[in-house]
Amino acid sequence: MGASTGTSILIYSGFHTDVGKSRDRNDDALSQTQVPLGYLVALADPMGNHADKASTLTVNTIARHLEQQQQGDPAEVLTQAFSAANRALREEAQKVGGPMGSTALAALISSGQLFVAHVGDARLYLMRGASLYSLTRDHSLMQEIADLKGPVAAGEFAPNLRYIMSRSIGAEDSVNVATRAPIPLRAGDVILLCTDGLTSAVPDDRIRRTLAGATPREAARRLVEIAAELGGEDNTTVVVLRVDSEQPPTERAMSFEDLMSMYVRTPEGDLHPIIDVIMNPSTWQVNAVRVDLRNAERGATCEIPVSEIGPLSPDEQALRIPRCTEALVDQARGRSGA
């Protein structure tokens, strides 16, 4: 799905959700909608009694509040929307005669900038180039222990402490909403919103590799599948947004000759020329590059997936590979060093 934000960027979206192997139903809730201030994505992962009603009421209240705001500071509007959701859950809890609570996460893309608000342990990541950045910090008892005593000390506590939220929608009369300074977006950025069903099972590095080189729909579906393969203990909901330019690109497209004249730079600063590419013959898409390591070992080569390197740009003479691919380079050197 593509949506214009009213500025010079387009947003392409894909999402996927799954009940998991240990749950009877999927209580996660999701809302994606165009609002006067831009494009909004909100998701919620409930807890306690009346879970399905809590998550749905949370995202619907946030979306309804944004739909009614024609102007204003986006960060303040998001904060107000979360407060409205908190009041709605508190009022509904009185009606049903029991506590209701939910985590909540919202991304608002407005005037080419990303605004984030969250409460709880749903997470938002930004992938730019080959790097994945976490833009939220869990509001859980386990995270607070880690902040105070360090991750090693936190690991000594019972694992179920991570399910105890230090902040949530509906827990108290007022809610402390976490926001951050807006982030200017650029074409090629990928935004991931997810519930803890993903992050409790799938490490960040695998998330990064899955996002690289895939469409939003493909990436969302695959991330949920990986979470299921690695346990699938919880409901899992994933939204992937890709930022594109509404204006035609001004720079020239990368040619085969451009690619062959480029180098791969390892984290240590070593430069190795690209001597060949591995392509999909039906789409002409570059899937991997073969790197010449003959400066290090006679006759050594190493194939590195493009997804490990990140987007290829003709503006860069040297492509930087992440540290995790160094093992591939070392293996190639070892095979040819005899």
Description:
With 338 residues, the chain is α+β, with helices and mostly antiparallel strands. The protein folds into two domains: 2-245, PPM-type phosphatase domain (Phosphatase 2c, domain 1, 4-Layer Sandwich), CATH 3.60.40.10; 256-332, PRC-barrel domain (SH3 type barrels, Roll), CATH 2.30.30. Helices cover 30% and strands 31% of the residues. It has helices at residues 51-67, 74-96, 141-149, 151-155, 196-199, 204-211, 216-229, 256-260, 306-309, 326-336, and strands at 2-4, 9-18, 29-35, 38-47, 101-110, 113-119, 123-128, 131-134, 178-179, 183-184, 190-194, 236-245, 263-265, 271-280, 285-292, 301-305, 318-320. The strands form three sheets. Strands 1-2-12-11-7-8 form a six-stranded antiparallel sheet. Strands 3, 4, 5, 6, 9 and 10 form a six-stranded antiparallel sheet that branches. It has a five-stranded mixed sheet with strand order 16-15-14-13-17. Strand 7 (123-128) and strand 8 (131-134) form a beta hairpin. Helix 1 runs antiparallel to helix 2 (74-96). It starts with a strand and ends with a helix.
